[in-house]
Amino acid sequence: MKRRFARLAARRRRSPPGRPDAPNEQEPHVADIESSLLEIIKENAVGLTGEPTRETAIADLGIDSFAVVEIIYEVEEKLSIEVPFNANENPLANMKTVGDLIDAVKEMSGQS
């Protein structure tokens, strides 16, 4: 747990939201958003067996609050978007599937 927190803190210091280390000059393509999110989810989902898909239930991912924050930071870094986030709320609470999450990120990036 300490290692995950240290990694998150280092990542946050390195790259404020919406300002990645190596800014992407282009808007992320819709297919890139989906594939990037699926990869990020795969890296952070401890309860998942197999590959995540749009139909995978959020509840089946087995992610804790640290993983949610880590997913948000990675999305911000890789896709050059800012994700509105309140530490007191779980942004995944209203989402039932990975597809819901993908659609929300596409909307935030203006590519829905």
**Gyration radius over CA:** 13 Å
Q: How many strands in all?
A: 0
What ranges have pLDDT less than 50 throughout 5 or more consecutive residues?
A: 18-26
pLDDT averaged over residues: 76
One letter per element, helices H and strands E, the order comes to HHHH
Explain the overall architecture:
- It is a single chain.
- With 112 residues, the protein is mainly α.
- The chain has one domain (2-108).
- The protein is built from four helices and no strands.
- Helix 2 (30-44) runs antiparallel to helix 3 and helix 2 (30-44) packs across helix 4.
- The longest helix is centred in the N-terminal third of the chain and has 15 residues, at 30-44.
Give the topology.
Elements: H1 2-14, H2 30-44, H3 65-79, H4 98-108
Helix pairs in contact: 1-3, 2-3, 2-4
Give me a quick take on this structure.
With 112 residues, the protein is mainly alpha-helical.
List keywords for this structure.
48% helix, mainly alpha, 112 residues, 4 helices
